[in-house]
């Protein structure tokens, strides 16, 4: 492998990575940014694959994302797109460009700003065509300008449950209803939000505009409702939803069925911590932040020297928090503490606003109890809950369940099913979910062709000739 070195290597081209790249470059650091996508922006600021003649028509989020991208592109930084980070050994990273061979990149500091993935929720029918996560739906609608269907139901929780159906409706999608698993806001919640509104005016304004969009479109927003199952043959044709209690457990007798041809599911996000786990960074569990998150200090430094973490990959906080964390990490890497107090003050205000919303957006344990024995939990290996239950009867170790059933061994490497398996183990063996360790982390952290990491010294001997 060839080797190259930088002062700061940024992994991830979302808001945290973009802000860190621009900030660190302005401070004179030699910076490289790695992102597996073909364009910058991450999931939240994903750019349409079209020529934009009227950027204003795409809204404030697009404009804000474009400003971050432009700042990173103007910076004296090397931008390596279509490039995945496969392994992290301290401040030495193994990266592979699409179609190329893996190489080593060394840095004084490595910032992991890998973002987050949609929280997978397993229920009967979740694998049917037409059932999409919010991230997939966002790509289809915002990036490709294609509608999801004729009758679309949104089900989820958190800020996304208000924002995304409003955005879908704004783009012309027929949203028949939006279901929020959490409770409706109380006067005390509104009061807490108003107290925490300083420095968060844009978030408050957006929430008001989203609610107004749903009201104008006569899109019902129903609280304390969760998807029980999706029905259909070759694709989803109907969704059954039901009322839930404060723990998100279904209340019998409250089921309702609605005909749809698309279901968008958005129950929040889980941090992408695969690289941090491979690197040996200490994690803690905080369900309000998405689950396992890295332990970081006031400079976003992890427990591994030289490795930093910022953005939703360090705990779900939203794009504004991600920006500030990225800047703070860059300041720390540059040894520049002059502006740190200003950034930390902004971060404190953002986090105070998130705490004001916490009662309404807390994830209930019932979200892990929707599957039936026939439900496929590991969709890569097509492992059902019934098969998992047989293995879990004999063990409380995710690694052993993996060996027995092949669950988590598919292309997604457990990103879709591992949390569900851990929750099933916890429930069956009387443990709490944070106390169930995830499967042993292994590299490569991202799917990669074998040719990208193969040792060129190994001779084929004709054993791997395609027929």
How does this model look, in words?
α1 packs parallel to α8 and α4 (159-170) packs across α6. 32% of the residues lie in helices and 23% in strands. By secondary structure, it is an alpha/beta fold. It has helices at residues 15-26, 59-74, 134-143, 159-170, 187-195, 201-216, 274-279, 319-334, 340-356, 358-361, 385-392, 398-405, 418-429, 450-453, and strands spanning 3-11, 31-35, 77-81, 83-89, 92-97, 103-112, 116-118, 131-133, 152-156, 175-180, 221-223, 225-232, 236-243, 256-259, 262-266, 269-271, 283-286, 291-294, 307-309, 376-378, 383-384. The longest helix has 17 residues, at 340-356. It folds into 3 domains: 3-118 and 270-337, 3-Layer(bba) Sandwich (FAD/NAD(P)-binding domain), CATH 3.50.50.60; 131-267, FAD/NAD(P)-binding domain, CATH 3.50.50.60; 371-435, BFD-like [2Fe-2S]-binding domain (Arc Repressor Mutant, subunit A, Orthogonal Bundle). The two termini are 30 Å apart. The protein contains 14 helices and 21 strands. The strands form 6 sheets. Strands 1, 2, 3, 4, 5, 6 and 19 form a 7-stranded mixed β-sheet that branches. A 5-stranded parallel β-sheet has the order 8-15-9-10-11. β4 (83-89) and β5 (92-97) form a beta hairpin. It is globular, with a radius of gyration of 22 Å.
């Amino acid at each position: 492998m060839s080797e190259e070195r930088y002062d700061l290597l940024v992994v991830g081209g979302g808001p945290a990575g973009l802000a860190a790249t621009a900030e660190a470059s302005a401070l004179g650091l030699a910076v490289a940014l790695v992102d597996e996508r073909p364009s910058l922006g991450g999931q939240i600021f994903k750019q349409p694959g079209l020529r934009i003649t009227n950027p204003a028509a795409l809204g404030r989020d697009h404009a804000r994302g474009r400003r971050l991208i432009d700042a990173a592109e103007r910076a004296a930084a090397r931008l390596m797109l279509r490039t995945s980070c496969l392994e992290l050994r301290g401040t030495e990273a193994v990266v592979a460009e699409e179609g190329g061979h893996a190489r080593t990149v060394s840095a004084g500091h490595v910032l992991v700003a890998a973002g987050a993935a949609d929280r997978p929720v397993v229920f009967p029918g979740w694998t049917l065509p037409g059932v999409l996560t919010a991230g997939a739906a966002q790509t289809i609608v915002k990036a490709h300008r294609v509608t999801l269907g004729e009758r679309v139901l949104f089900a989820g929780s958190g800020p996304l449950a208000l924002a995304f159906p409003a955005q879908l409706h704004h783009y012309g999608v027929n949203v028949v209803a939006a279901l929020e698993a959490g409770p409706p806001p109380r006067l005390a919640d509104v009061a807490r939000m108003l107290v925490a509104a300083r420095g968060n005016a844009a978030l408050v304004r957006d929430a008001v505009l989203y609610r107004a969009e749903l009201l104008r479109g006569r899109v019902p927003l129903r609280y304390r409702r969760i998807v029980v199952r999706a029905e259909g043959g070759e694709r989803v044709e109907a969704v059954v939803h039901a009322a839930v209690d404060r723990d998100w457990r279904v209340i019998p007798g409250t089921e309702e069925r609605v005909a749809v041809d698309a279901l968008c599911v958005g129950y929040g996000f889980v941090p992408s911590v695969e690289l941090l786990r491979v690197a040996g960074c200490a994690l803690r569990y905080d369900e309000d932040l998405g689950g396992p998150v890295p332990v970081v200090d006031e400079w976003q430094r992890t427990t591994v020297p030289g490795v930093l973490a910022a953005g939703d990959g360090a705990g779900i906080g939203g794009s504004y928090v991600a920006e500030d964390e990225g800047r703070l990490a860059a300041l720390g890497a540059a040894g520049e503490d002059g502006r740190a107090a200003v950034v930390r003050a902004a971060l404190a205000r953002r986090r105070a606003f998130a705490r004001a919303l916490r009662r309404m957006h807390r994830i209930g344990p019932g979200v892990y109890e929707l599957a039936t024995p026939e439900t496929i939990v590991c969709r890569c290996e097509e492992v059902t809950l019934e098969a998992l239950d047989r293995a879990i009867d004999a063990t409380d170790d995710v690694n052993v369940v993996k060996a027995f059933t092949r669950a988590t061994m598919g292309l997604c490497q457990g990103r879709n099913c591992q949390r569900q398996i851990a929750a099933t183990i916890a429930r069956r063996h009387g443990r709490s979910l944070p106390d169930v360790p995830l499967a042993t982390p292994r590299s490569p952290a991202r799917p990669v062709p074998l040719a990208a990491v193969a040792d060129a010294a190994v001779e084929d001997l004709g054993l791997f000739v395609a027929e």
